[in-house]
Amino acid sequence: MTASRDIVVIVGSLRKESFNRKLALAAIDIAPPSLKLSIVEIGDLPMYNQDFEGPAVPATFTAFRDRVRRADGVLFFTPEYNRSVPGVVKNAIDVGSRPYGSNAWNAKPCAVISVSTGALGAFGANHHLRQSLVAVNMPTLQQPEAYIGGAEKLFDAQGKLIDSGTRDFLGKILQAFATWAERNAVT
Q1: Which of 74, 72, 86 is nearest to 126 (CA)?
Q2: Is 73 in contact with 109 (CB distance < 8 Å)?
Q3: Domain that holds residue 81
Q4: CATH number of the domain bearing residue 125
């Protein structure tokens, strides 16, 4: 495998004590050497509006799109809101895919990891997000599927992942994603 693929991490929860952010930080700590993971913030992106294109494009849009374009792949960590993804995730996808013909997401290998306190591990959000990823032409890792429930029991008071089973599972997902990113590398 090629060393150090640059992987953008999108965290779909803006909450200070977000379980998704905690798991993303754990992923950064345990990622195989072939992946260099870095969180790219999406909370400061204005809601997408086509009127912002052209000379009025916000600097945050340009910086976000440029960062995604430079990446070798993307990992999404998302909670579930009303059987779907949070609005900030959908907004980030919209911002990155516009203007028409300039899709920053195009052909980037990706994976979806959904995290919630519920037993289903944000299953609905995971699958709903996959629908949008098809539309922006992102080859998405199919197996292992990553639905992580009971999130409130997985971390200590400092936010560190303490559940060994979840840590092992996350390691398997990251290894599978490393292989997927290599196989689907954009040249």
Answers
A1: 86
A2: yes
A3: 5-183
A4: 3.40.50.360
